[in-house]
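Quick log. Single chain, no ligands specified.
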Amino acid sequence: MTNAVETLSLFNLAETDDGFLLEIGGSGGSTLTLAASAEQIDAIIEALDALLSDDDDAIED
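-> predicted structure:
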């Protein structure tokens, strides 16, 4: 059985006493809730920033 790739339809980020709670949902109705540390959220932010900065550079060329 193969899993179809769903489109992102939900993204929530909430702060908790221990870090953060990340909730991601797909267009098929599936959701995934994950606990994440501040360091993990920082890594996600840095990866997105690098990816988006690369896109901006390509557009400016």
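DSSP finds one helix and three strands in the chain.
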